[in-house]
Amino acid sequence: MIEREGATLYCSALFFGPDGSLFGKHRKLMPTASERLVWAQGDGSTLPVIETPMGRIGSAICWENYMPLLRQTMYAKGVDLWCAPTVDEREIWQSSMRHIAYEGRMFVLSACQYMTRADAPEDYAAIAGLAPEAELIKGGSVIVNPMGEILAGPLRWGEGVLAATIDTDDVVRARYELDVAGHYARPDVFSLHLDAVAKSHLHKVASA
Question: Which residue segments constitute the domains of the chain, with CATH numbers given?
């Protein structure tokens, strides 16, 4: 969703429980390319991993998935179900999702938009053409298991819902041989620091 705080816009992912309550949110840390003209940068205070009966859920939005330190931070928080909403329809994105699932040894669920010219405002100058059926974003949603194997999708050229039956113990089994936030982390050699403080432009200092 696009979230507004005052007059500032953020690209955000929201986490809702079965009863509709808001569990948490993540604001995109680094808007990509021309997104920087519209959206502000999030900070380290909204990088949650949500505990659920299904496992720990986290998210990285679109090209945040290409930020190695963000990925390592989420791995260290123990994410089991990685949500990757995107607008990247290219084949390389499928390779990236499989790599991230295999690297983090977790399930990856990537939802990619599908959009035709008819979905856009009439005055939008779509480079793909003006015909209502012209595809502006072709989709590519996919579900990947902790060994990098595709369980469902990619879903292209139309709207739809992907589903897969998963065994969350596959996460534990996969991390037995490779755990990049555990026995493969080597904290004696590498260290990672997360500033999780919400950034405010106003800091109140109490007078003596």
Answer: 2-177 (3.60.110.10)
